[in-house]
Design brief:
single chain, 111 residues, alpha+beta, Alpha-Beta Plaits, 4-stranded antiparallel β-sheet, 24% strand, globular
């Protein structure tokens, strides 16, 4: 069992990622509107406002999608679909995806 975490830096890709997850059998995800450190430093901490130019590529917001995936094949397929979607972008830094092992899990409904 793994926790899949996908940070999407290009908001226009969220719909494709979620559709891809459904296609490969990932039905339960949580999506969080998130901000990167560069955005917060450049826009929300007055002492660092002079560093705004350093973070000129910082996005206003990102999406962080996460899901606990039990099946290894489903996890592999989900990672593959995200890599394909991210590689379609002409600009780099579409996002990141990583997994972490889950050693304990409880849910009120069965996986």
């Amino acid at each position: 069992m793994e926790l899949l975490v996908c940070v999407i830096n290009k908001p226009e890709l969220l719909e494709d990622v979620l559709a891809g997850f459904i296609e490969v059998g990932v039905g339960d995800c949580t999506v969080i509107d998130s901000k990167g450190m560069g955005t917060i430093i450049a826009n929300e901490i007055p002492i660092f406002s002079g560093f705004k130019n350093l973070f000129s590529g910082a996005r206003e917001s990102n999406y962080t999608v996460f899901s606990v995936i039990q099946d290894a094949k489903t996890l592999e397929d989900a990672i593959k679909i995200v890599k394909e979607i991210f590689s379609r972008m002409e600009e780099p830094d579409a996002g990141v995806i990583f997994t972490l092992p889950v050693t304990s899990f409880f849910d009120t409904k069965p996986l």
